[in-house]
Amino acid sequence: MNKILITGATGNLGSDVAKRLKDKIGTNSIAVLVRNGHSEKAKQYHTDGFEVRVGDYDDYETLTNAFAGIETLYFVSGSDLDKRFQQHKNVVQAAKQAGVKHILYTSTVRKDESEKAPLHLVVNAHKQTELWIQESGLAYTILRHNLYSEVVYMFIGDKTLLQKSKIVYLPARNGKTAFVAREDFAEAEAIILSEPEKHKNKIYEFNASATVSFYDIARLLSETLGEDIQYISPSVTDFEATLKSMGLPDAIISLTTMFSLGIANGEFDKTENDLETILGRKTKTMAAYIKDVYQ
Fold first, then answer.
1. pLDDT at 251
2. What whole-number distance in Å separates Cα of residue 135 and Cα of residue 130?
């Protein structure tokens, strides 16, 4: 029996993949990885029939123990940019040592891999992790994600804020992005995990069926809210000064600026349709996402 381990199982993507995979193949061949085996989420997984394994990307020994007997590893990338290199190295090495046969890794789409690129910090870690996986000798499936639709809410704020300011304010210029709803990533990756043999040694580019700019998003918000929402793309200096005056932490300001400049640089203006192919349908539109969140 092919035993599958889903990492990041207490996060949004991992938990959604686990639920969708359960609906496809049941829980007998699925294990989930959590850092705290006594957490409420871990207890719920037990109740739902999943095998729960405990491991931490920072702790190599816990990973080798957690990966024992696992054939297929769904490896959700770590969220801590400062720790990501070592954490990912731990995961790949532990998988090889434990005898894992196939790694499916959530990476990122990109165009510019140079050190001068706005998203070098993010892209370089994913690029290196892909290389480690491919050099490990294990079968692999690289799942290069475009930006989540859900980051739009993080970038522009809630309905109350938008109705007050009537402005979308980001230094993303007219850059376009093929935003993907998390549910579409989860559905596609559950499909792949249900028949992983079909996807060995493949690299997929997961983009939405259409690209949008923040000018488009402002128009969609205007239609949904019945308000005239304008998009302003300020200079980086003005943007960072404005966010700082609002009391936002430097780390949030830096991250938002970095991704905005990545969008402006065309990093996410991608048209490959691998996601459509896996899903067998068009992806959720930005218009639908905006209505779900802001109506």
1. 93
2. 9
Token pair 């300001």 is at which residue? 253
Is the CB of residue 88 less than 8 Å from the CB of residue 132?
A: yes
Domain segments of the chain as ranges:
4-145, 148-178+208-269+282-295
**What length does the chain have?**
295
Question: Which tens digits make up the pLDDT trace of 251-272?
Answer: 999 999 999 999 999 999 999 9
CATH number of 148-178+208-269+282-295: 3.90.25.10
pLDDT tens-digit readout, 95-106? 999 999 999 999
Name the CATH superfamily, with its identifier, for domain 4-145. NAD(P)-binding Rossmann-like Domain (3.40.50.720)
Q: Is residue 99 a contact partner of residue 58, using CB atoms and an 8 Å limit?
A: no
Q: Is the pLDDT reported for residue 54 higher than 80? A: yes
pLDDT in tens, 147-173: 999 999 999 999 999 999 999 999 999
Q: Do 4-145 and 148-178+208-269+282-295 agree at the fold level?
A: no
pLDDT band at 91 (very low <50, low <70, confident <90, very high): very high
293: pLDDT strictly greater than 80: yes
